[in-house]
Amino acid sequence: VTTPDYHVDGVVGDIGTQESGDMFCLMNYQPCFDYSYRTKGNVEYLYIVPLMPLGSLFCDSKDGTDINKKDRDGNNDFFGDATKGNCLKQIKLK
Hints:
Distance between the termini: 52 Å
Number of strands: 3
Largest sheet: 3 strands, mixed
Strand content: 5-15%
Structural class: mainly beta
Radius of gyration: 15 Å
């Protein structure tokens, strides 16, 4: 691991954080992070998180969508699947 000789301004997130899961869910807390952190082998990466529209629905699974969706090899450069997800079924009305 190499320490960069420059300073990164902004907040860095990892898999399963507040921006994980369905990017269109109302409970997806974006924009929380400016960068996504990944290690691949012994190389560290910071990916700039694009500006995304705010959510407009309650998700029904923990699967990542849009930038959080896995590629065909099961990898993702951003926040991946939600840790909990399925926000629609967690709503309790009295």
